[in-house]
């Protein structure tokens, strides 16, 4: 995106602008640490992506492979004053914690974008955040205050005429985004998969990443967001912003079905690949050897934190793992402060299952075994292949690596903390789900 009238930037200018914007975002996080530690904790645990990207006009928050990312486009973000930027930062947090990108499935994208923006823009009350002049508000569309996005949607959808940008927001950045008054070679921007809004043309450009994100393991995304919010609540007790109270209540009102998430996580790791065959040439395809499609069996490592607090959950947890045997090769690892046992799951009799350990807890040995395929902590343990994914049942009380590239699902006991990293602070990788109480 290039704002109307703005000259084309050189690569050096782009690099400087990206650096300056990244520093400004860090400054804003620090300012929020004093006024709004809840928001600051959330943002500080996001991956930061600052780039000039036509698909993200100003800012966005996404979940990618179980990790939250904050995207910032310097060309849009840096046109705002700092207190307006902080408003935008909070605005994006409210969008993702209220699951707006998931709640809009099946709705007109432009109309839904309007309704989500006017719902949350009126909620933000902060001494260090100021509503930007080009933000959408309920009064721009002759709507009452204090409704939900769905209620606003119902009202606007019933109107016969298409929704257009109000006159007071014309000739602003909002006008550039909605009506295509930017220098994208004369083309109007659109959302990531090209779907156009019928009820509010052009407004689909405000959140172009939402529709694609809504189709990417929504239950896993919800679990990640729940984990992020739990972490922020623990880190800033008694300092939850008023506008977040109703959002948090909605976020946790229907606890995620953790067995379903476990199955979704495992199946998302399965891959389909073509296998060459050495048969004679096909009569239909001549000398072309078509081969066959086969589904790769999943290599899964299931780790159990054998501290005493997980003992009551083992039976239900292992029964869910049992249901994965038909499509996964599973290594079951018991670990307290060190590896206690490694067994092939299909060789285990659950009726006579014995827990080993029940001592202190460290998560490090499990991830060392997973990445190196062997470990010797007084006794040598090996696995045949590096796992495609790791599922870890734990009470969260232990030390984990600063990062692990192997997809990991942390199955946490009720009220468990997020595991801590070796370097200090809570880890910001992997996916989380809490067992039902």
Automatic annotation (TrEMBL):
Please note every region of biased composition (Low complexity): 179-194
Enumerate the UniProt keywords alphabetically.
Plasmid
**Coiled-coil intervals, chain numbering:** none
Where in this protein does the record put region Disordered?
173-203
Q: Give one Pfam family, short name only.
A: DUF2201
Q: Which segments constitute the Putative metallopeptidase domain?
A: 22-285
The UniProt record lists the VWA-like domain at 300-419
InterPro entries membership: Put_metallopeptidase_dom, VWA-like_dom
**PANTHER family of this UniProt entry?**
SLL7028 PROTEIN
This chain belongs to which protein, by name? Answer: Metallopeptidase domain-containing protein
Species of provenance: Priestia megaterium (Bacillus megaterium)
